[in-house]
Amino acid sequence: MANAKLICALLLCILVTAPMLNIEASIRCHTVKGNLETCLGYFTKVETVPPPGCCRGVQNVNNAARTTKERRDTCSCLKTVAKQYHVNLTFAADLPRICKVKIPYPISASIDCSRIK
């Protein structure tokens, strides 16, 4: 359950980061989750900072979500996972800054994934 929470939060972060990319494939939710697995301790506050693998995962997801469809799919995946595992969105929203990944919109449970470009 803790892994799922972490994955949700990281996915949400990645979703926010995704609009900066341009690729023509579809990113799968399990791929997003796998890239964010190492962030679990941070989102559950077992760790006070995300481990290096967590930031690499965030960057990987951001780099993979290049098309509008991929960014929207990633956003939807992250929202679903975050809700399912009760991810602390305050921690999720801070992750892009900590990992130095630029995201053009805020990480939020209220984000409308269909509006992501």
Automatic annotation (TrEMBL):
CDD domains named among the record's database cross-references: nsLTP1 (cd01960)
Coiled coil: none
GO MF entry, a single one: lipid binding
Entry keyword set: Disulfide bond, Lipid-binding, Signal, Transport
One Pfam family from the record: Tryp_alpha_amyl
Listed transmembrane segments: none
GO biological process: lipid transport
Family annotation (SMART domains): AAI
Leader peptide range in chain numbering: 1-19
Gene3D superfamilies: Plant lipid-transfer and hydrophobic proteins
Record domain Bifunctional inhibitor/plant lipid transfer protein/seed storage helical: where: 29-113
Domain of life: Eukaryota
Record flagged with keyword rRNA processing: no
Function text: Plant non-specific lipid-transfer proteins transfer phospholipids as well as galactolipids across membranes. May play a role in wax or cutin deposition in the cell walls of expanding epidermal cells and certain secretory tissues.
Assigned protein family: Belongs to the plant LTP family.
Protein name per the record: Non-specific lipid-transfer protein
Source organism of the structure: Populus trichocarpa (Western balsam poplar)
